[in-house]
Every structure is written in structure tokens, then in C-alpha cells.
Amino acid sequence: MSHKGHDTVFHNREQAGRQVFEEEHHQSQNLVDELLPPGEIEFLSVTSDSVSLSWGSPEGLTGPQRFRVTWGCEGQTTSSLRVKGGYRLEISGLKPGEKYQFNVVTEGDDGRQSRLVSASVITVVPSPRQLKVDQIGATSFTLHWSKAEGMEQTPQRFLISHCCHGTEPTTDITEDCNKTLFDLEPNNQYTVSVSTVLTNGEQSKPVFSTICTSK
After folding, report:
1. Domains of the chain (ranges, CATH numbers)
2. pTM for the model
3. Residue 101 has pLDDT above 50, yes or no
4. Is the pLDDT of residue 27 over 80?
């Protein structure tokens, strides 16, 4: 008696079963081979021209890992560095008052990369220097200051604020490094501040001085 038909059915089932097993094994192998991403990015320090950042080890992995760090801000070419066996990096040569995005991926020996982790930070805008006051009169005085070190060629303006006790601050903007304030009250103590303002609107922390007008 011939069993050829039964043999064909059995062979087809066996082949189909083998194919399903191989597909499942392949998918499982892909999961095993998938590189785990780094932990979250943390900014350790931020200055006007540098950022120090760290990131966590990929969950469950031990031993030295290799990472690729890329960074840049809008409208500029991105930069990239490889970090092996460490979890932190200090990057210098940045521009003040710019928002930088940092991406970190785990990188395999064969060039494969994990899903990236990302974080952004704005570099510090440096404050003006050497705030001085002269020509103090009963109703006016003149402020002088210098641009922050390294900012001499950077387009910027300055926000000036002044007030006396119990009054709302009066503000003004200038591109110069001096400003004369008028219409003040005689024999009154004024608090003045000057901040750097970049073309993108980012501001520095103010520098302060206290002046008393003459009688």
C-alpha cells in the first residue's frame, strides 16, 4: 500500500514547523543582539563655552562599553566623539547663550548603534565686567562697564535697570558700554544692574551697584 500522500503532508508540516522555529529563533537572536541604550544624560557643569556631561551604564551590562556622543545647535554642523570605557565627557569650544542638543548611543564593535538618549542645555551668557559709576549729580549719574571676556566680537546689547527703595525698576537697552541715567531724585540711593543680552534673546546674570545721588 502506498503512503506517498501521507508522507507529503508530513514532510510539508515538518518543513513548515522548521521554518516557524527558524523565524522565532532569528527574532530571538535579534533581541539578544540588540544593543541596550545608555542611561539618562546628566549635565555636571555648564559654562559659556563648555559642557561637562555624564550618562548611565546600559542596564544590566558590565565591563567596558563604547559610546558615541554627538552634539550641535540649530543651524550648525554637528560634532561627534567616541568614548570607550567611560561615562562622562567634557566638551569645549562652544558658543555662549546657545541651545545645544547632546545625543549618546551605545556602539558595538561592528558599528551597530543602540537607540539614542538625548538632552539639551543652554550655555551660559557671561555677565558684563567692571561696572563703574561717575559724574554723580543730584538727578543723574553715568554708568560704565566692559564686555565679558571673550565676547568682544559677539553681537550683543545691554539691559540696564535702576530703582530706589519702594519703586518699580526702570529699564533701558543700549548697544554702548555706558549709560547716563537722568531724572533721578536728589539724595536718594539707587540700585542699578546691567545684563548682557544676545541677539537670540538669551541674557546673562546681572551685575549690580548701589549709588547715592547728591543733595
Report:
1. 41-122 (2.60.40.10), 129-212 (2.60.40.10)
2. 0.79
3. yes
4. no
